[in-house]
Amino acid sequence: MERTAIAMICDFFHPNVGGVESHIYMLSANLITRGHKVIVITHSHPPDRVGIRWLSPGLKVYYIPFPTIASSATLPNFFTFLPYFRTIILREHITLIHAHASLSSLAHEGILHSHLLGVRTVFTDHSLFGFDDAASILTNKLVEAALRNVDAVICVSHTGRENTVLRAQLFERHPVVASDEPLRPSQYVNNNVYVIPNALVAERFKPDPNFKQTDTITVVVVSRLAYRKGIDLLVATAPRICAAFPNVRFLVGGDGPKMVELLQMREKHLLQDRIELLGPVKPNDVRSVLVQGSIFLNTSLTEAFGIAMVEAACAGLYVVSTRVGGVPEILPEDMISFANPEEDDVFRAMSEAIRIVSEGKHDPSQAHERVKSFYDWGGVCERTMRVYDAVLKSQPRDFWTRMQRTLDLGRFAGPIFLTILVVDCLFFLFLEWLMPREDVDFVRIDWDQERFIEVAHETQEARRGRRRLG
Amino acid sequence: MPDTQWEKVLWKSQPFPDNYVPDSFLSSLRRNANFRPYSYWSLVLASCAIVQQLAVIFIFLAIFVNLKERTLDPRILVWLSIGAFMLGVTIWERLDYHKFDSLSRRNGCAKIAKSSILVFLALLALSPVLKTLTAATSSDSIWALSSCLFVLNVVLADYSPAAPLGMVRERLTSVLSMNAAISSSVVLASRLSDDASVFALMVFSVQVFALFPILRHRLQATPAAVRVVITALLAGSTILLALPLSIVVAVILCATFMFVTFIGPCVLFWSQKYKNEIRGPWDVAVPKVN
Fold it and tell me: Secretion signal: which residues (chain A) (predicted)?
């Protein structure tokens, strides 16, 4: 694949911390080391994170001055991003945008505008959504509209793909039936929906080489303490486990609304000496928390991928998790025990895990080596580049097809989004007149990784030379 | 096609492209898994509660008009209210009969008597104030305001049947609903000419908007026949009260009751065939805690 200029667009990026944020950063960094040009477009974080910043290794980040409404997401309004978007795409000579996260309105807008500039689009969906409440009905319609004309979709797990295909209706609604045989899914599901998992930097999650197996077994929980993370199950099972296994202690990292319930549970069962609550844990400190234990417990009620479990397994812990979302796909059966999201079953799975660990059947260093071979960013990057390549080689949809596909959205949504599409074009023409392309301040010098290494070497040499002289 | 079987795992590198769609795609999708279709008559029965609430509001309005036109003596209304209160308390006691022993029942009776006398006296003392509270507002505003408040009352009222055991748990919306109706009667009371009428109207409004919903909640657990009879009685008396005032209103009321009882459930029953509930592994699981 030849050198491509890619723009990552998402509401969620550094300085925020999270799965999506680190995914975008790691993917961009790997693309840059493979010689591509990558920029990130996100919203600003006043007062100090504004304007254009550079992140190592040569990742340029545009912080667009948009106010956020909730959980760092901007208000979906379909048009106001276009002036910024047009200028950035033109001056950076971008040929492909990669939008992330289905609740990010910047990502949706990017997909809507990019055809005006002949830019191709890829979208990555990071989360799972239900279908049965008003909020998900509305957001699912927005996602469906945004993904109507996208060139490729990437999901982080097979379950995530099933979910996204249903939510965004990424299948042929009226497939041509050639014979009486029932249709196979591959015949009607769009062939531009890919599954590429997340990855992790295995070197950052090495097991502790000085770890000694003692009688005490430490169970580690690192999670946001919220309802969706199943903290109710933890509150219910922890006292039972402590009562049944006198050699087990808990180490809980994270903060959230359910902290109070954990504290109450600890007090009620007098377990202050056996359940340690660490409070919020910084991403850099996660490993040091993980390596103190030998079992990782995850009680999430929904999870698209579950990177925390992969990190724990990589740090040499045996994993116990609820069987939800994409979790059953991430680790082989002998590294993880599954439980249904029920108190009794979590207790059963934990007892099983404690038995496995206390009998010494789980080898941390071997687990680390195995996870290292499962997931790595290099592989993810190669697979993503294959998607980019397929997108860049495919034929773009013409405007008339786009309009027809948008109209197919539904009786009400179709005309609304068609209007948005057409008004967006008119707005674009207006911008072409207001801010002619000749006046755009084009970027002439890009970050050159090789030149950077050279300069770094020269500086080092010069410094060494000076020291020798002095 | 490679010989190896595709597996739904991410940790293994498989000889399939990333956009490979296996035949097992969406095999864990379940449609209408816990769907229990309604039967038409159960919906009709459930709609009785709505008819009762509507009927009570229109009975109240008819009585208000009669008071305003001075065709009803406020003293009769006060006695009627007291009678209705006694009847309601008796029914309530009958429904609660098997739950409490005699001692706590006697205590309960004393409590009810005490608080009802308090409310009675407070209303009596406050009626001159209530009468002049919104007297300066023009009648048009009063009609508009009170109809808005009554709509709010109907929309927010709690129509669910009482839990089989335990006390009635008040929801925020049902409290709001009661408040809307009482405020509406306060603003209407300012259109009446004398303090006695205001007092009678307020006593009646406390009866029908504060106490009746609680009783109705309980009545919904009674056999279907009882509910049907009560609904029919209320709807019939509404129409009887409305007839002398305006035939058009009576006809509209009749139509509304028919619509709510028979046509509304019919629409809901018919629309069930469009039900398409999708469940799958991506749904947020419900934790089961003992």
Answer: none
Phi, psi of B73 (to 5 degrees): -75, 125
Residues 325-364 of A with CB under 8 A from B: 325-326, 328-332, 340-344
In a domain, B161, yes or no: yes
> What does the pLDDT read at residue A413?
93
pLDDT tens sequence across A134-188: 888 899 999 999 999 999 999 999 999 999 999 999 888 777 766 677 778 888 8
ipTM of the complex: 0.79
The parts of chain B modelled with pLDDT lower than 50 are: 1, 166
Mean pLDDT of all residues in chain A? 91
The answer to the question of residue B203 being in a domain is: yes
Q: Is A327 exposed, middle or buried (0-12, 13-18, 19+ CB in 10 A)?
A: buried
Residue of B11, B278, B288 with shortest CB distance to A332: B11
Residue B19 lies in a domain: no
A13 pLDDT higher than 80: yes
Q: Please check whether residue B187 lies inside any domain of the structure.
A: yes
State the residue range of the domain holding B205: 40-274
For residue A173, the one-letter residue type is R
Is residue A415 very low, low, confident or very high in pLDDT (cuts 50, 70, 90)? Answer: very high
Chain A residues in contact with B290 by the CB 8 A cut-off are 236, 343-344
pLDDT in tens, B204-213: 999 899 888 8
Chain B, window 9-38: residues with a beta carbon less than 8 angstroms from a chain A beta carbon:
9-13, 18-23, 25-26, 28-29
The answer to whether the CB atoms of A326 and B277 lie below 8 A apart is no
Give me the number of domains chain B comprises.
1
